[in-house]
Amino acid sequence: MKPAPFEYIAPQSLAEALDVMDQYGYDAKLLAGGQSLIPVMNFRLAQPAVIVDLNGVSELARLSANGDGGLHIGAMVRHSQLEHSPTVAAKAPLVAETMPHVAHPQIRNRGTIGGSLAHADPAAELPAIMVALQARFRLQRMGGERWVHAVDFYQALFTTALEPEEILVEIVVPPLPAHTGYAFHEVARRHGDFAQAGAAALVTLDKRGVCREARLVYLNVGNIPVQTQEAAAALVGATPTPDLIKAAAQTAAQKEIDPAGDIHASADYKRHLAAVLGQRALQQAVTRAKESWAS
Amino acid sequence: MKKQTIHVTINGTEYTKTIEPRLLLSDFLRHELGLTGTHVGCEHGVCGACTILFDGEPVRSCLMFAVQTDGHTLQTVEGLGTPDKLHPLQEAFHEAHGLQCGFCTPGVLMTLIPFLEKNSDPTETEIREAISGNLCRCTGYQHIVDAVKIAAHKNTDTN
Hints:
The complex is a heterodimer. By secondary structure, chain A is of the alpha+beta class. Chain A contains 12 helices and 14 strands. Chain A has a 5-stranded antiparallel beta sheet. In chain A, strands 11-12-13-14 form a 4-stranded antiparallel beta sheet, sandwiched between helices. Chain A has a 3-stranded parallel beta sheet with strand order 1-3-2, with helices on one face. Chain B has 2 domains: 4-79, Roll (Ubiquitin-like (UB roll)), CATH 3.10.20; 88-158, [2Fe-2S]-binding domain (DNA polymerase, domain 1, Orthogonal Bundle). Chain B contains 5 helices and 5 strands, in the order E-E-H-E-E-E-H-H-H-H. In chain B, a hairpin with a 2-residue loop joins strand 3 and strand 4 (57-60). Chain B is elongated and about 50 Å long. The chains are: A alpha+beta, B alpha+beta. Chains A and B meet through helix 2 and helix 6 of A and strand 4 and helix 4 of B.
């Protein structure tokens, strides 16, 4: 058999899962969709002693838009659900628009948002999207919980703020300011492959077309999602013309990222992609923000 | 490691088996049940050859443990047609020469069955996206796309 032996525990409630994690902690691995964990187990790169399967914990599979205007996404909500949910499309259209880029339909039917976020693959779309949306993550352990901002959750390559006994249980995406345009663009060698680089942008315009807020976040140009500062700041207070947008994306690509080359893309090529994708994403976000005033 | 007993319905037949938790679903189908129509290629979720339907949705059977199917309903390529009476989608593949060596075909078929149920008249782009998670080394995909178009038209014509 491919994976090494392990003890299999399938809790049927969150309380039970937290209890199991409290007991096994470091020796246990949480099994969500399994689309990243099971491959590494098949290669025996990971040989966890205990597998805690969360697929029976229905409390974690809830998806709702609460009174606070935010979107509450249980950690076990699957990618295909995010892709097709009218609630997600209405409350967090950036998420809905990004989902078709996340792997293939067969993977999206199993993969979960919590699994993807906690796995923290630098090439994954969802971590960067959640940083861009300023989402908050609820981390629970037996007897307590804490909230962590997406931007603080990602610490290093495949490393997050999660402690061994903790479970990422819920993601809350706050509502966007009015008249905010959004966009996501990536380049991958084939549709559904991991992207060589990607960019998410959010731009808020006032009625005169002046930028009030701008966010530009990259994936796969560093070990964790890269939230640009200078590039975004260059737009705020200004009317984002195509030239200004191009200059901002150039700033991001030249000064704010430090990509490492890999077999699919050299560092230089990733910088080139960051400039092009940043420009496209910002431009589309600006266009959408303008359209929101027209309608 | 402690074995577990599962009850699972596959192609309409109920099975009760006692297995190790680390047994992959793909190996369970092939080795425990002899359902060798499900092919195993890369065994890490890239090639799509092992795609089956889990509660009606296509998934990679190499990226699930068999123990996770307890109480669920699966369909494999054996549940489609028989050599004497092919499923319309299989007929379309036959007609359009949508396979050569046939290794990827079960996974491609199981991906396309729910796709065509949801989208009876797909565009070429939609078809190519639908099969983006299935690798084929023989056809160059064109004949697969042709087969899907034939199958879609057959469905529309008979409706």
